[in-house]
Design brief:
The chain has 711 residues and is mainly alpha-helical. The protein contains 21 helices and six strands. Among the domains are: 5-76 and 91-143, no CATH class; 630-696, no CATH class. It has helices spanning 5-9, 36-48, 80-83, 99-114, 122-140, 145-267, 277-305, 311-369, 386-394, 399-417, 447-463, 470-482, 484-500, 505-514, 520-540, 550-560, 566-575, 604-628, 638-648, 654-665, 687-696, and strands at residues 420-422, 439-441, 547-549, 587-589, 635-637, 684-686. It has a two-stranded antiparallel ribbon.
Length: 711
């Protein structure tokens, strides 16, 4: 608080006793011992300047010497009310700065310039001149010396305390850095170990798949061998049955011959004529009675069993009858089926006639109203590259595809002319990697550069752990490649290019995955299938010449794709460059099937594989729809879908089935109820949503359907 005006007006400066003259002692805790020399220099300066900072040995009472009035009012000197005071309103307000203050400021400025600020203790030495100036004030202003000394001591104690805390925390900082480096090394080691384990598990998976294929082949061979053994067993059974009957007949004939021989030996025996006639007569009588009884039994047997056939003939006739009965039933079923097919063919014939008439009418209408076909040769002079490039682009394409080619060429030219793209904003419909306001620079890369960049992105995606979404990975990849400042510009540039060039395989597949029209597992599994096929070809090529024959090529395709039909295998062989006119002994270079041009376009063989995969998936989804027998707007339960999948594909294992159900209902596999659980009926969704999810996901048939009974 300010003192009263009376005290201020009666203040008279006292003769000053400079603090330097009293031999001030500087605490060792505030200044290090290494600065003792500099402290002696400072004390000498105090002695030399002790008489220079005052006028005639007194403190300057600035600004009090200019007037005898005080400035201890409650109002500020710069306020309007203060200027309106009548006593000093006309007096000037500008006073010269005292010489004592100027000398203090010059001394402070000079001492700061003399200090060496390049050392570690520069900030601590910088405080020393300020301490000296503050000591001057303490010694000169005797009235406020206790208060100013307590303030100075409090600040010095606090500075010493903070300095000690800093010194105590420095080892902790070094330890923290060491622990951080140790943790980073452990994390890197754990990641390397995880990658190594993943590679081992993948190799083990490949080996197990090979073992499964071998076991399946052994199972098929064993089944064929069992069928052959059953056939041989039936033939042996018939052979032994006929042998048994022949043996019984032979035993009966042998017994008859033995009985006849005994009778003849008795008749020729000389001892018979020497027996008693009475006994012989009695024996003859008994024999005649036995003969009569036997004759009667024989007649009875003939009467009762005269029409009975032998058992062997009966069994043979029974078997023949059974075969004929089965053949009759089969023919009757075939006849009924043929009748149904005949009716269907009649209906199809009638519908075909109607369609023919309709198509004929449409043809007449088209011929009447249609314009002539365009002359595509006119595009040779327009497309960059001339006739040669146009012939290369137009080879094997129809009119619709040629229109797409022209649109790409026109769009490429327009895309080259753009220097900036307008930002799409931050809406929910905008993909995360395109959310930006303002203008974005067009980097104008070539098609080859875009394809190479997308291949590098796929390579990095397959090498890392897929923990983040594909869109987040894509933007992070661009940030790592081009930096955060250019990542958004490259994102817009690549997006516009892949959206335009739909005929390019690499760009179209990347665009489909980026826009969630296709799962990235579809691309990964397709690349894995191609790698497996090439590996099988290389293992078959024992001489490592890069050549295969027709039989080897066909065998590899059938073993790699056991569910493909013969027509599909033939299509793949023709796409690989093998025509029926070529000899089976001819060899061809199989490495050429997997090559790509500079724009990422693959050979016809790989394109045909991709086309067959899409067709097979479309057919599989249609079979699911037919099995469910529901409309698109109707709801399907999880249990109903599980039953339909098992009906059309009985070879589905439990893990694959749960994965398909998880993709269809967009649920984690851990949340799926078990088969037969009551919760299956509570999980429902539209059939249209299920089919759309299947179209996006990677689904395929795992085995053949149950075979129909052979006709």
């Amino acid at each position: 608080m300010a003192s009263p005006p009376s005290q201020r007006s009666s203040f008279t400066p006292l003769p000053r006793a400079h603090p330097w003259s009293s031999g001030e002692i500087i605490s060792d805790s505030l200044v290090p011992e290494a600065k003792s020399t500099q402290k002696r220099k400072i004390s000498q300066k105090r002695k030399t300047l002790s008489t220079q900072f005052s006028i005639s040995g007194h403190l300057s009472p600035w600004p009090m010497y200019a007037s005898g009035q005080t400035i201890l009012q409650n109002r500020k000197p710069c306020s309007d009310d203060y200027q309106k005071q009548a006593g000093w309103q006309q007096e000037p307000m500008c006073f010269a700065k005292p010489r004592y203050l100027e000398q203090l400021e010059n001394y402070l400025r000079r001492e700061l310039l003399l200090l060496d600020l390049g050392t570690d203790s520069a900030q601590e030495l910088r405080l020393q001149p300020y301490r000296e100036i503050f000591e001057f004030f303490i010694e000169d202003f005797k009235t406020y010396k206790p208060l100013l000394s307590s303030i100075k001591n409090a600040y010095e104690v606090m500075l010493a305390h903070q300095r000690e805390r800093i010194r105590a925390l420095e080892p902790l900082k070094a330890k923290l850095v060491t622990v951080n480096e140790d943790c980073n090394e452990r994390i890197l080691a754990m990641r390397a170990e995880e990658r190594y384990e993943i590679s081992l598990l993948k190799m083990e998976k490949m080996n197990l798949l090979k073992v499964i294929d071998k076991k399946n082949e052994e199972k098929i061979s064993l089944q064929s061998e069992v069928a052959k053994l059953r056939k041989n067993l039936a033939e042996e059974y018939l052979h032994y049955l006929s042998e048994r009957d022949a043996r019984k007949i032979l035993i009966a004939d042998l017994n008859e011959l033995r009985y006849q021989r005994e009778d003849m030996s008795l008749a020729q025996s000389p001892g018979v004529w020497g027996e008693d006639p009475v006994k012989l007569t009695l024996a003859l009588k008994m024999t005649r009675q036995d003969l009569t009884r036997t004759q009667m039994e024989l007649n009875t047997m003939k009467a009762n069993f005269g029409d009975v056939v032998p058992r062997r003939d009966f069994e043979m006739q029974e078997k023949t009858n059974k075969d004929l009965q089965e053949q009759l039933e089969s023919l009757r079923a075939d006849y009924e089926e043929v009748c149904k097919e005949h009716e269907i063919l009649l209906q199809l014939h009638m519908s075909t006639l109607k369609e023919r008439d309709q198509f004929y009418a449409e043809l007449q209408e088209i011929q009447r109203t249609s314009t002539p076909r365009p002359d595509w040769t006119k595009c040779e002079d327009v497309v960059a590259g001339g006739p040669e490039r146009w012939q290369m682009l137009a080879e094997g394409k129809n009119s619709d595809q040629l229109v797409d080619v022209l649109l790409e060429e026109i769009g490429e030219g327009l895309l080259r002319e753009k220097d900036f793209f307008p930002g799409l904003g931050y809406g929910e419909a905008v993909p995360p990697f395109l959310r930006f306001d303002g203008m974005v620079e067009n980097k104008k890369p070539t098609k080859k550069e875009v394809v190479n960049l997308l291949k590098e992105a796929w390579k990095e995606r397959l090498a890392e752990e897929q923990k983040e979404t594909f869109t987040d990975f894509f933007f992070n990849f661009l940030e790592r490649r081009f930096g955060p400042s250019d990542a958004m510009a490259w994102a817009y540039t690549i997006f516009e290019n892949i959206k335009l060039f739909r005929s390019n395989e690499v760009m179209s597949q990347f665009y489909a995955v980026l826009m969630r029209k296709m799962s990235e597992t579809v691309y990964i599994n397709q690349k894995w299938t191609i790698a497996q096929l090439l590996k099988e070809m290389m293992s078959t090529d024992s001489q490592n010449e890069g050549l295969l024959s027709r039989e080897q090529f066909s065998t590899i395709l059938k073993s790699t794709f056991p569910l493909k039909k013969e027509e599909q295998i033939q299509e793949l062989m023709e796409a690989g460059g093998w025509h029926p006119s070529r000899s089976s002994a001819d060899l061809f270079n199989y490495h050429s099937l997997f090559m790509e041009n500079e724009e990422g376009q693959s050979e016809p063989f790989v394109q045909k594989l991709w086309e067959q995969y899409l067709n097979e998936k479309e057919l599989y989804v249609q079979e699911i729809k037919q099995e469910l027998d529901l409309e698109l707007h109707q709801q399907v339960t999880l249990g109903r879908l599980r039953e339909a999948l098992m009906n059309i594909d009985p070879s589905l294992d439990r893990q694959t089935l749960r994965m398909y159900l998880s993709q269809a209902f967009q649920l984690p596999e851990t949340d799926l109820p078990e088969e037969g659980d009551e919760k299956e009926e509570s999980n429902v969704t539209l059939l249209q949503v299920v089919l759309e999810q299947f179209q996006v996901s990677d689904i395929k048939r795992m085995g053949p359907r149950e075979q129909e009974p052979a006709s």
